[in-house]
Design a protein that fits this description.
This protein has about 200 residues and is α/β, with parallel strands linked by helices. About 20% of the residues lie in helices and about 20% in strands. It has a six-stranded mixed sheet with strand order 4-5-6-7-9-8. Strands 1-2-3 form a three-stranded parallel sheet, covered by helices on one side. The two termini are about 25 Å apart.
């Protein structure tokens, strides 16, 4: 697709670095003009988030841990921010999820994109001033009837939605959790094109 930027919104792995480092190696081949960025998902917190964050760095991915970068895209500033997963607050890793910290001291007027694994981070991201949140986590419901239960935990299961002054896009992702099947929720890699509003 030759993208300007690659965003990975967490749950990249479900296992320990010692077991899955080789399986993650192909991620080193991701290449984009402005780089590849990653945030933690709940599964990174189940199995060694700090070790995976270090492994992602070795693979050339840039973790955004309640932090942001300011990109210069043909003379225009663009903020790419990321937060630790919503579940980090209850993990043993001493991490928190803090959208306010992620956008601290951003340039005024620059569009702000927040990478947040779970859609339920959207209210806090919108309050912090994000313009677009990119999320995953839900697998689009993955299969019937599980898709009905996902809605009890997450405000958005898939696709593009509006929350106040912010857009939220929730990707169905490429994998699965639990039973190795998907039904009614096809895998996706999403190409998002940003354009200047009127």
């Amino acid at each position: 697709m030759n993208p300007d930027l690659i965003a990975l919104t967490g749950d990249i792995v479900d296992g320990y670095v010692a077991k899955l480092a080789g399986e993650a190696e192909p991620l080193a081949g991701l290449s984009a003009r402005h780089g590849a960025y990653v945030v933690t998902g709940n599964h990174e917190y189940y199995q060694g988030a700090d070790e995976w964050i270090a492994a992602f760095r070795r693979l050339g991915l840039q973790p955004l841990l309640n932090a942001h970068v300011v990109l210069d895209h043909d003379g225009a500033a663009l903020v790419i921010a990321g937060i630790n997963d919503f579940s980090a607050n209850n993990s043993a890793h001493h991490h928190v999820s803090d959208p306010q910290a992620a956008l601290l001291e951003c340039p005024k007027g620059a569009p702000k994109i927040m990478l947040a694994h779970q859609p339920r981070s959207a209210a806090a991201a919108e309050a912090a001033g994000a313009d677009l949140q990119l999320s995953g986590h839900t697998h689009g419901g993955q299969f019937w009837p599980w898709n009905y239960f996902v809605r009890l935990q997450q405000p958005y299961v898939a696709g593009l939605h509006r929350l106040g002054g912010m857009w939220v896009y929730t990707s169905r992702g490429t994998g699965y959790w639990g039973p190795p099947k998907r039904f009614g929720a096809p895998s996706e890699i999403t190409l998002i094109t940003l354009s200047q509003g009127e």
